[in-house]
Amino acid sequence: MKLFEYFGFTGKVNQLMAPKQQFIAQKISRRYCVFAISLFSLQGIVALLGAVDLVIPDLPSPIPFEYGRAIHLGLSTFWPLIGTMGMIYFFITAELNREIYSPRLARWQFWIVILFCLLILGSLALRIGNGREFLEGMPIFYVGICLALALASYNLIQTLLTDKRNITPAAATMTVGMTFLLLLLLPNTLTYTNPIADEATKFWVVHLWEEMAFELTSAGFIATFYVVSGLASRAQIEKWLYLEASLAVIGGLYGTGHHYYWIGFPAVWLILGSLLSLVEVVPVGLLVHMTYKGLKHKKIRSNREKLTLWLLLSSVFYHITGASLLGLIITVPWVNLYMHGTFFTSGHAHLALFGSLGFVVLAGCYYVLSQGSEPTLKGYKGGVLAVILLNSGLIAMSSALMVAGLMQAYFWRILGMDFMEVRLSLNPYLILRVLGGMVFTLGDLLLSWHIYRTWRTTNAK
Amino acid sequence: MKLKTLLLLSTISLALFIAITIISSRLPSPIPESAVAGKLVWQRHNCISCHTLFGNGGYDADDLTNITTKRALSYLIDYLVQPPVMRPNNYTHHPALDEVDAENLVNYLEFVDTIPTLGWPPQEEDAEKDL
Ligand code: HEM
Ligand code: HEM
C-alpha cells in the first residue's frame, strides 16, 4: 500500500495554480481529450484480450477474434483522431491568441465524431461490418466521421481567414493536416469492385493519415509546445516549419508506394516507393535537431511541462527507431519481399503507430487537461512510472513480434514450410507479446487514471 | 518558405498522386459478376482479420492471394460449406458459408489469383495440387 501511495495511485496528485484566462475553444478541447484518453484505456484492454485469444485455443468470447481485431484497429485510429481534434483547437488558439471562428461548430463536431465513432465500434461488436482492414465499419458511418472532419476543417480555415495577416506556420500546418484527414478519408466511404483500387485507397488512411496528415497536425502541436515552454524560439520554428511540412507532404504521398509494391501495381512503384520514403525521414531529422538544441539551452522546471516532455521524447525516440529506421529497412523492396505480411510488420506497426503518433497525442491531451494545475511530486512520479511502463511494454511486445516475424520469414517464406506449422511454432513469442501487452496496459491504465484525476481537479475550479 | 508554397506544393502533389494511383489501378481483365459478389462475401465475413490478400491483413491464417493455384476449387468450396475444426483448437470451427456464397467467394479468389504481383510471394509452396 505504501508503494501505491508513493506513486500517487491514491492521495492528492495535483494542485491548482492561478487560473489562466481561457478561450472557449480551449474549454471545448478538453472534452475531446478526455474522450480520447478513455478510448485509449479501452484499447489497452481490448488489445490484451485479443492477444490472449491468439494463444489460448477455444477461448470462449462474446466477440470473435475477427471483430475484436477490427475494434482494436478502429480504436487505434479513433483515439488519436479525437485527441488531435481537441489538441488543435487548444493549440491554435494559443498560437493565434484569439478565439476560433465558431465554438458552436466545435461543439457539434464533438457530438458527431463521438456518435459515429461509437456507432462503428458498437456495430462491429455486433458483427456488422464492411471487412476492409482498418476501415471495418459500415461505409455510411465513415461519412459521419467525414462530416466531423469537414466541420473541423471549415472552422479552422475560417479561423485563419479572420485575420489573414497573422497566420502563423504552426496554425497553418495544423489546418492543412486536418484538411488532409478529410480529403483522404472521403474516397474510403465509397465501395470498390476493383480489388486493386480498393487496396490502394485503403492505404490513404492506413498510411497517409498516419504518415502525412497526422505528421502535420503533430508538427504544429510540437512547434507550439516548444515555443510556449521556451524550448525553441518562434523565429527558429517559423524558419523550419513550412519546409518540414512540405517534405512531409511529398515524402508521405509518394512514400505510399511502399504499400503499393505487391498489390497489382506496376513496377515503377518499387522505385517511387523506396526513393520517396527516404524523403519521409528528413522531417524527423529536423524535429530531432530542434529538440536537441532546445534541451541543451533550456532547463524545464515545471513538472507539468516535464511530464509532457517525457511523453513527447518517447514519441521522438520511436519516430527515429520504430518508424524511420525500421520503416526504411522494410521499405527496401528485397527486404519487403520477405518481411511483408509477417509479424515483423506488426512490430513496426505498433512501434510506429503508438510509439510516434500515440505518445504525441497523449502528450497533447495531458497538457490540455492539466492546464491551470501542477502535479504534486507524487502525481509526477506516478506519471513517470506510467511512461516507463508504456515504453517497456511496447518494446517487449514489439521485439517479440519482430523475432516472430523473422522466424516466419525464414521458415515460411525462405524454406517454404507450411504456414500453419510455422505459425504454431511461434506461440512462445506470442505469449511474450501478451506479457509485454500486460505491462503496456498497466501503464495505459495508470496514465489514464492520472490524466482523469487531473481533469477532475482542473474541472473543479 | 511561405504558406502559399506549401499549399501549392500540396495541391499539385496530391493531384498527381491521385492521378497515377488511378492509372496504376487498372485490372488485367474485367472482374466477373460472381467475383464481385464474392468480394462482398469476403467483406461481410471479415475474412481479412485472419487472412491476408497481397500480404495485407491478419497474420493468423495463410495468405490467400494464390490459394486457387494451390488447391482445387471443389476442395475450397467444400472447406467453406462444411468447415473443419481449426488447428490448434479442439472445437472451434472455421466460419461457414452457404453454397452460393462459397462459390462466389472462390470465384473472387480465382480472380485475385490472376492479378500480377511482381514476384510476391517469394516462394510458392511446392505446388502439387492437394485434392
Ligand atoms: C509515424 C510514422 C509511421 C507510422 C504511424 C507507421 C505505421 C505503419 C503501419 C500501421 C503499418 C502496417 C500496415 C498494415 O498492417 O497493413 C506500416 C507498414 C509499413 N511501414 Fe510504416 N509507419 C510509420 C513510418 C514509416 C516510415 C518512415 C517508413 C519508411 C521510410 C515506413 C515503412 C513502412 C513499410 C514499408 C510498411 C509495409 C510493410 C509491409 O506490409 O510489407 N513506415 N506502417
Ligand atoms: C496492450 C497493448 C496491445 C496489444 C496486446 C496489441 C495486440 C494486437 C493484436 C493481437 C493485433 C492483431 C494482430 C494479428 O492479426 O495477429 C494487433 C494489431 C494492431 N494493433 Fe495492436 N495491440 C496493442 C496496442 C496497440 C496500440 C496502442 C496501437 C495503436 C495506437 C495498436 C495498433 C495496432 C495496429 C495498427 C494493428 C494492425 C497491424 C497489425 O496487425 O499489427 N495496438 N494488436
Account of the 3D structure:
- The complex is a heterodimer of chains A (461) and B (131).
- Chain A contains 16 helices and 2 strands.
- Chain A has a single domain (23-459), classed as Cytochrome c oxidase-like, subunit I domain (Cytochrome C Oxidase, Chain A).
- In chain A, helix 3 (65-96) runs antiparallel to helix 6 and helix 9 packs antiparallel against helix 10.
- Chain A is 78% helix and 1% strand.
- By secondary structure, chain B is mainly α.
- Chain B has a domain at 29-116: Cytochrome c-like domain (Cytochrome Bc1 Complex, Chain D, domain 2), CATH 1.10.760.10.
- Chain B has helices at 3-24, 33-44, 67-70, 73-81, 99-113; strands at 52-53, 56-57.
- In chain B, strand 1 and strand 2 (56-57) form a beta hairpin.
- In chain B, helix 2 crosses helix 5 and helix 4 packs across helix 5.
- Mean pLDDT of chain B is 92; it is low at 125-131.
- The interface between A and B is large, with 65 and 62 residues.
- The complex binds protoporphyrin IX containing FE (2 copies).
- One protoporphyrin IX containing FE (HEM) binds at residues 206, 210-211, 258-259, 277, 280-281, 323-324, 327-328, 330-331, 336, 339-340, 345, 348-349, 352-353, 356-357 of chain A.
